[in-house]
Design a protein that fits this description.
Blueprint lengths: L8 E6 L5 E8 L4 E5 L10 H9 L3 E5 L15 E3 L5 E3 L9
Parallel strand pairs: 3-4
Antiparallel strand pairs: 1-2, 2-4, 5-6
Length: 98
Amino acid sequence: MPAAMDAPSSHRFTTDGGLALAVHDWGGTGRPVLLAHPTGFHGIVWAPVARRLVAAGCRVWSFDFRGHGDSDAPRLRLLVVGVRGRRRRGRAPPRRLR
């Protein structure tokens, strides 16, 4: 069985939209496994699991969702329809204070 990596080999790929997404290659051979992190985390959070999977004979990758870890955050486009149906761009709707 191949030895598990202490740290992954990380790569950034640019999408057609210009965002860079990070992919972490944990190594290994055999059955492929892609690990997706929960909201608010990043792909490196899977380190203990990735090491065990590689030791068990799997080929393992994890990645950072857009706006997490080493991946770029998308630019936020906000389209709000006002009270009278007019469109406004780039501003949040006014809030009522209680």
